[in-house]
Protein: MarR family transcriptional regulator
Amino acid sequence: MPELSQDQLSKARLRLWLKLLKSVNGIEAEIRRNLRDGHNTTLPRFDVMSALARFPEGLKMSDLSTFLKVSNGNVTGIVDKLTEEGLAERVAVPGDRRAQLARLTGKGRTAFEELALHHENWINGLLDGWSPEDIDALSSRLELVLNRQNEEDASHA
Structure:
């Protein structure tokens, strides 16, 4: 790439951002469609199940909402529905009468494992044609953005 002026570089970064945004929005729309049409579920529900699958011992509702970066109200409704369906359960936190842990049941873990396999296959299909070098290069560049965001989040905490 030829040497760019600061103005040209700024505009190139803006075009890059717009391409990233369009790509992510398109992928997310397809994931939402696949979850809805193929499994009669939603992306927020998948995200809650995914978080609970990562923490088999369970998460406090407040920790779950922090982990997912959404409000307590958003996760409460989803966990309530998962609990009604036997996919999750709430258990008391020893020593804290007000807090509850949410965790997947055996049935919930099995359902999530199936969803996760389909999800992985969808993503694999969407990104088919990317070489390992392409993946590593883009991943390392995106790490720069994520690290900067984490630094910003920490400075505002």
Q: What stands out?
A: The mean pLDDT is 92. The domain at 6-126 is CATH 1.10.10.10 (Arc Repressor Mutant, subunit A).
